[in-house]
Amino acid sequence: MKEEYKRKLEIKQQFHNNEKANLKRELNYINLKYEEMKSEASHLHNLLEQMKQQEWHLNNRLNNYAVMGFWQKLKFLFNISAD
């Protein structure tokens, strides 16, 4: 009887060790995916900042164009220096 309990305990211990190993693998996979997502989020954040800078630059150009007079716009359209 004592041997039977010992064997059952060993089987349960092995089962728990396997479960623990599986959980560790899953945790490692999740951590890897998390780091990949953080990297992607950082990349997207950088792209967003670049787009914001480009938008600011284009808005400045648009505002400058909007305040130009007719002759300045005409010169601008023909790439003539507008004094």
Key attributes of the depicted protein:
83 residues, mainly alpha, 2 helices
Q: Your description of this structure?
A:
Helices cover 89% and strands 0% of the residues. It contains 2 helices and no strands. The radius of gyration is 33 Å and the shape is rod-shaped. It is mostly helical.
Topology of helices and strands:
Elements (H helix, E strand, L loop, with lengths): L1 H66 L2 H8 L6
Q: Given the structure, what is the number of helices?
A: 2
Mean pLDDT value: 92
Please describe the biggest sheet, giving its number of strands, its sense, and whether it closes into a barrel. none
Report Rg: 33 Å
What is the ordering of alpha helices and beta strands?
HH
Beta-sheet strand percentage?
under 5%
Separation of termini? 104 Å
The counted number of beta strands is 0
Shape, per Cα inertia axes: rod-shaped
**Considering DSSP H and I runs of 4 or more, what fraction of the residues is helical?**
over 70%
* SS class: mainly alpha
Low-confidence parts lasting 5 or more residues at pLDDT below 50? none
Give a brief outline of the structure.
This protein is mainly α and 83 residues long. The protein is built from 2 helices and no strands.
